[in-house]
Design a protein that fits this description.
2 copies of one chain form a homodimer. Chain A is of the alpha+beta class and about 110 residues long. The first copy, chain A, contains 5 helices and 3 strands. Chain A has a 3-stranded antiparallel beta sheet with strand order 1-3-2. In chain A, a hairpin with a 2-residue loop joins strand 2 and strand 3. The longest helix of chain A is centred in the C-terminal third of the chain and has 26 residues. The first copy, chain A, starts with a helix and ends with a helix. At the A-B interface, helix 1, helix 2 and helix 5 of A face helix 1, helix 2 and helix 5 of B. Chain A binds a DNA duplex (30 and 30 nucleotides) through helix 4.
Chain lengths: ~110, ~110
DNA sequence: CTTGTTCATACGCATAAATGCATTTTGAGG
DNA sequence: CCTCAAAATGCATTTATGCGTATGAACAAG
């Protein structure tokens, strides 16, 4: 019926994006490659936590990393991730609009 | 820096898609509206489980539901979900290809 | 070789998510 | 009213996720 294996991989891929801290990192990487040392101060979470999220996304194929001395630079692996993010943004905003209308009608 | 609230909503939206059983349901709904009674026998999971996943996706704005007698019909709310799924499919397959090449090179 | 910096990881904990089984609710039809 | 079928819910259990603290590994510079 379904390719269970592919479904699992797709699920893992989406899960790697579907988390608020990771989403923030992705948005931050919109302007291009960034060192972990630049990403970390930008977030309110702990260094270890950000590091884990970065590793997670790299393992999932969302990010690529490059080492330079003690620093590690991360960037988005596939530009289509941005298309995906825009798409989600559009859909979520459309949904918010829709719900706002319903609230207007009810009272 | 970021719209924390929007990020959270987008994260929830993506999480509602990023789960293997729910992904299977979405793929099953590609051909259009389906009754829960049609979806359930198609999956190996329990009826209660599928019911909860359907409710989850409806609440997240991914699905719409329509009641007809004792049956409940579900369909995808926003066609762009399919665009998103295709995009994920492409990216995942590209990543698989990439990794296959690396494996070829190493030995 | 020592020190300081950057990033990754092990450990432990807390919370969230997914699941199956049993039960309830809801509606159709005798 | 009774019964049957479909879907939702309560409950208990297991599994997965996310997190902070502390520690470790890699590298540069003195």
């Amino acid at each position: 019926m379904f390719d269970e294996n592919l479904i699992q991989i797709e699920s893992d891929f989406l899960k790697a994006i579907a988390q608020s801290t990771r989403l923030k990192i992705l948005y931050y990487l919109k302007d291009g490659e960034r060192c972990a040392c630049e990403i970390i101060p930008n977030m309110k979470e702990d260094q270890s936590n950000i590091s884990r999220h970065l590793t997670h996304m790299r393992d999932a194929g969302i990010l690529e990393s490059r080492k330079e001395g003690v620093s590690v630079y991360y960037k988005i692996n596939d530009k289509r991730v941005f298309t995906l993010l825009s798409l989600v943004d559009e859909m979520v905003k459309a949904e918010i609009k829709k719900k706002a209308k319903v609230v207007k009608v009810i009272p």
